[in-house]
Specification:
455 residues, alpha+beta, Beta-Lactamase, Helix Hairpins, Heat Shock Protein 90, six-stranded antiparallel sheet, five-stranded mixed sheet, 9 helices, rod-shaped
Length: 455
């Protein structure tokens, strides 16, 4: 069957633009509706006030004159202040014949040439908006004026009603855009999380399916780097494993030849013994390199975890190291309170053997080394502690580095034993920690196993 065509990559820019434009349009229409409703309400109030003001002006025009030539303008009693406050004058030959009480005594506008129109005079420090209409036959003008301050008051009142809804919609728009951009950029964060999770044991290419179009060149370039890096690491591991494997046979043969020569020439026993010691040290280094070469390519899911009883294994290790401990004058003890734990038996044995070897090698005569297996904070813990010279706090942080050895040590070693322990602990999800040993002295190495059921 023919393979289905791969889905075309989608554009992050288009999705983001579409989401923001759609959200902005919806919220803009909603805010426009609210602004229109508020503006309609305020406009109706202004027109109602204009009608009311016109009524009062007509009422004033039909009343008697007072001694000052003012129209006795009726005022509403006890009502709120009107928004529209219009004043008018009747002007003939540049003199005010009639006016409302709020109008100035002199004409708003003088020398007006047109039959009707608007003007913006300033009288007594106040700016007016005036409409002038002239009756050519009767030779008089009607000038109706309103202070600009009244208009500004209306504008301020409108702004007071609008700022809160507009501000609320802006905040809502910002929140919606924040949520939408977060959802649209979620694949970007997922890809970043996938890249951040890459380790030397997981160099598989990042999946291209489902990636946005703008991110595809970066992911493809990264996959190329991962492929080259994986090839280089695999070549290095193969070389290390092959070299270590090929060295074991000639080293074993060399050890046998030196042993035979030592028997044939007893007078050279001391030099041959030193040579055998160096060969044994080189053989241990090759074994450690071969062990690391086998452990490095493994992932945590490839470890054959199974329930094991730790007591028989600890007793076996104690018996295997009893003779060395006795020769060095070191008291070796064990305490096991665990019934079972999950681990790979072979790897667990390598890890504990390296810890015991390390403790016995660097502890002087008269020291104590204790191997303890117990429950701690609901988890299984195995600890190897001693009361030897110990390691400084700064050097403890580097003990698991490959080929690192504390300066001033006279004992032979390769600096790989604790690196192997660290690698096996990582494969099992075990928390490895270095601290003080017995009675606050020496070195204590703790292995905290994951809780049952933990991922």
């Amino acid at each position: 069957m023919a393979a289905e065509p791969a889905a075309a990559p989608w554009s992050l820019r288009r999705r983001l633009l579409a989401a923001i434009v759609a959200a902005s349009t919806v919220l803009w229409l909603a805010s426009l509706g609210i602004v229109t409703m508020i503006s309609w309400h305020e406009t109706n109030e202004v027109f109602d006030d204009a009608l009311e003001e016109s009524g009062y002006m007509l009422l004033a025009a039909t009343t008697d004159w007072d001694q000052r030539g003012l129209l006795a303008r009726a005022q509403p009693g006890g009502g709120p202040q009107r928004k529209v406050d219009m004043q008018y004058q009747i002007v003939a030959d540049g003199k005010v014949l009639q006016r409302t009480s709020g109008a100035p005594g002199k004409p708003f506008v003088t020398g007006f040439d047109d039959r009707h129109g608007f003007a913006d005079p300033r009288l007594d420090g106040r700016r007016w908006r005036v409409f002038v209409v002239r009756d050519e036959q009767r030779q008089f003008e009607v000038q109706v004026g309103q202070q600009y301050k009244k208009r500004y008051d209306i504008l301020e009142e409108l702004a007071e009603h609008l700022w809160l809804p507009v501000l609320g919609f802006l905040a809502l728009l910002a929140l919606v855009c924040w949520i939408l951009t977060g959802r649209v950029l979620k694949p970007l964060r997922r890809t970043a999380s996938t890249i951040a999770g890459k380790t030397p044991t997981d160099l598989a290419p990042v999946e291209l399916l489902g990636q946005p179009r703008e991110l595809l060149p970066i992911v493809q370039a990264l996959n190329g780097v991962l492929a080259r890096l994986d090839g280089a690491l695999q070549a290095e591991r193969r070389f290390t494993a092959d070299a270590a494997h090929e060295l074991r046979t000639p080293l074993a043969g060399l050890h046998m030849h030196v042993q035979l020569l030592q028997r044939q020439h007893p007078e050279l026993s001391a030099p041959f013994a030193k040579l055998r010691h160096d060969i044994a040290r080189l053989t241990a280094l090759v074994d450690s390199l071969l062990t690391l070469a086998r452990l490095d390519p493994l992932a945590r899911g490839q470890v054959a975890m199974q329930p094991i009883a730790p007591a028989p294994l600890l007793k076996q290790l104690l018996a295997a190291h009893a003779q060395e401990a006795a020769q060095r004058g070191i008291a070796l003890s064990m305490r096991c309170e665990l019934d079972t734990l999950n681990a790979d038996p072979a790897m667990l044995e390598i890890m504990l053997r390296n810890l015991l070897d390390n403790a016995l090698r660097y502890c002087p005569a008269g020291s104590r080394v204790e191997l303890v297996a117990q429950q701690h904070a609901g988890k299984a813990r195995i600890a190897v502690c001693d009361d030897g010279p110990g390691v400084s706090e700064a050097n403890r942080q580097r003990l698991s580095e490959r080929f690192f050895r504390v300066l001033g040590q006279q004992q032979a070693g390769s600096g790989l034993g604790l690196s192997i322990v660290k690698r096996i602990a990582d494969l099992h999800g075990i928390a490895l920690a270095f601290g003080a040993g017995l009675d606050g002295k020496g070195l204590g190495v703790t292995l905290d196993f994951p809780a049952p059921g933990a991922p």
